[in-house]
Amino acid sequence: MFDRINWVFDIYYAAFQGFCLQYFLGSFLEYRGRKHHPNGFYVAILYTLFLLCANKLLFHGYEDIRVIESQTFTFGLIVLLALAFYQSVRAITGYLVIAFMAVSQISFFVAHSVLKVGHELYGVWIWCIEKTYITDPNMVTAILDITTIVLQILMYGIFSALCFWALKSIAQSFREKDYPINRTELYFLLTPSLAGVLVCVMLRIIVVTVENGIPELLYSSHPILLIVIPVILILCLLSIIYSVKLLQNMIALNREKNNKMILEKQVDSLQGQITEIEHIYSGIRGMKHDMGTTIAVITQLAEEGKENSKLQNYLSELNQTFDSLEMRYKTGNAVVDTILNMKYHEMMRTIPEVKLSADKLLFSEEQMIQSYDIGVIIGNALDNAMDACKKIHGSKSNLFIRISSFLKGEMFFIKIENSFDGKVVIRKGAEFPMTTKQDKKAHGIGLVNIKNIAEKYHGGVDWRVEDKTFILLVMLKNGKKVSADGLV
């Protein structure tokens, strides 16, 4: 009977590992083939079958060479499954394989230690038999059988809970799954996982000793190891999990610093250009007014003379040239006007079919938000909207970018709507959609900068998608003046 029960537990052990493997790899890597293709199911089934066959046919016993062969086989099997069923396999895949092996084996040995502690129950039953508290042989057999089964269920239950918890913690803590990890960071992650695998290899080799031809567990001669070994293993497991959390915090901190530096440069650049922009456009408006009057007089004289049609054509073209100097967008904010007009002319060169509407983007004289902060928001939002429109440039879609603003109490809202291809990719735990640009370290920070500005004014950023329209809503508190360093 116990052979059949052990066979059931072996199947469960292999099947559960297969389930955890497809979950763990699937949390980091994209499946090959169609989106709804059951590749995860195939990974779980194949891993279960190969592991069962290998353990039953190839790797019996605890000899050193058997243990090494078993670890090598498991590593190779997982790598082959990753290559066969997942795309974009990168250096991080090596870490995923080692981490999975470490977590599953550490969890098993911790659960196995609990099982050994539970074996003390047999001593209790023997004592009861010796004291004749239990005399019925059938009852003795039943009690021992039930104890064995319960301890096995407890062991595999602890293994399952600990293994899945650890793998889930790693997957959830690894927020920057698309971050191109460098060699030093990879070594930092690999070290605790590789150490965990080696500790488990060592335990497999030394846990069984042979005395006078009789196998004996190491725990029997050194009972203190029932406490020491699980503690060491749990520390290894925690080091694997917290190394991921530490690296992710470092990546987030460096990204925040880079974003802050870029944002400060944008703000400094806008601050330095505000006075110059206002001066230049004030001069242009004055020049246009003066020249417009002069051209009108010359044109009237030329019409009266009716002697030089070429002069009339030239003056007409000159007047059109001055008309083009007129600011197309007038919102009441010189910085925003400049950005809108610059982006408009850029769009006319690259994607002329886009309709840029800013009629409802208005600012009052009581505006308490710094002009250069609004400029950063509008500039980054327009850049993102233009990139989205460029992706569907040349299609029959109605390309548009609409910007508007409104007040609601003390909150000032800026709304940006733009057409796009309707495809949004969001990673788990991410606040904003993924950037579609290749250089993810240098790009994808526009929305983060907008969020930083919004938070400076005790506001926030929200976004949504309606059909093929991307809508970004920026909220800023307009009640108090905020200084350049963000202090009220």
Could you give a short description of this structure?
With 488 residues, the chain is an alpha+beta fold. It has 13 helices and 9 strands. It has 2 domains: 2-258, no CATH class; 328-488, Heat Shock Protein 90, CATH 3.30.565.
Give structural attributes.
488 residues, alpha+beta, Heat Shock Protein 90, 2 domains, 5-stranded mixed beta sheet, two-stranded antiparallel ribbon, 9 strands, elongated, disordered C terminus
> What count of helical segments does DSSP give?
13
- Unreliable sequence segments: 481-488
Helix content: 55-70%
Shape assignment: elongated
Tell me the fraction of residues in β-strands, as a range.
5-15%
Distance between the termini: 76 Å
Largest sheet: 5 strands, mixed
How many separate domains? Answer: 2
Q: Strand order across the biggest sheet? A: 5-6-7-9-8
Order of secondary-structure elements: HEHHEHHHHEEHHHHEHEEHEE
Query: Structural class of the secondary elements?
Result: alpha+beta
Total beta strand runs: 9
Mean of all residue-level pLDDT scores: 79
User: Any idea what the radius of gyration is?
Assistant: 35 Å
Topology, pairings included?
Elements: H1 2-26, E1 30-31, H2 39-57, H3 64-85, E2 86-87, H4 91-118, H5 120-130, H6 137-173, H7 183-206, E3 208-211, E4 214-217, H8 218-221, H9 225-305, H10 309-324, H11 334-350, E5 355-360, H12 371-391, E6 400-408, E7 411-419, H13 446-456, E8 460-466, E9 469-477
Parallel strand pairs: 5-6
Antiparallel strand pairs: 1-2, 3-4, 6-7, 7-9, 8-9
